[in-house]
Amino acid sequence: MATTTTTDHQRIHPLDLESATAPSAPLVPRHQTTSEKTPLHPPNPNPNPNPPFQRSIPLSHLPPPKRRRSCFCKCLCWSLLLLILLIVAIAATAGILYWIFDPKLPKYSVNRLTISAFTVNTDLHINAIFNVNVTAINPNKKIGIYYLDGSELNVFYSDTNLCSGEFPVFYQGHRNTTVMSVPLNGDVKVDSQLVSELTAQQQAGNVPLVFKGNVPVKVKFGALKLWKVTARVTCDVTVNSLNVGSPISIKTSSCKFKLKL
Fold first, then answer.
1. Whose CA, among 43, 81, 157, 202, lies 20 to 30 Å from 30?
2. C-alpha span between 144 and 157 (Å, rounded)
């Protein structure tokens, strides 16, 4: 009996610390992170009255971007405005000049043709010497015309240049009519078909000719002399014959005039 009692007193029963200290129920349910009344991380009851100094980094102020597009738009607008003003000024000046001078186109006509030589050689060369009178009319009251050097007058038959010459150099005043005598001569190679057509039209009494003149001129408005332009005159003329010694009559004559800058 004594032995049994001593053994019972010497046995050591371990204590379950976890079960002793752990609460029987959790304070916060597992599906909830904070308590309904108390926050999970309560504020510090004793905040530091002197927080550590934190150095602030100054903001860098970048320069504003250059307004290149705005400057380009302004330059474009000013250029367009100046161009419009220039066009308006030119139009106004032209209108004033037109109202003051009342310009009219000159008129031209072929009123006489003299043939000194017109032969067809055996080698189909045509030798022609003409003399043509061209009448130029300037109907303007305050505009004069300078006929300059370097002009030419050509006579064509069926696109073949028979002979050529030059207009005289002179000044035609206001409301003036001038008759110019222009000598023409030429030597051209043709084909047999053209000779046959020309012979048939001479026998019929209807020979179509085309007179083409290119004349450099300068127009004078009052005391103002403008730049040089080219006057182009084209006259469709029908004559009865091209025979030497026979009278040449002009049956029809129609002229067109235009300026080339």
1. 43
2. 33
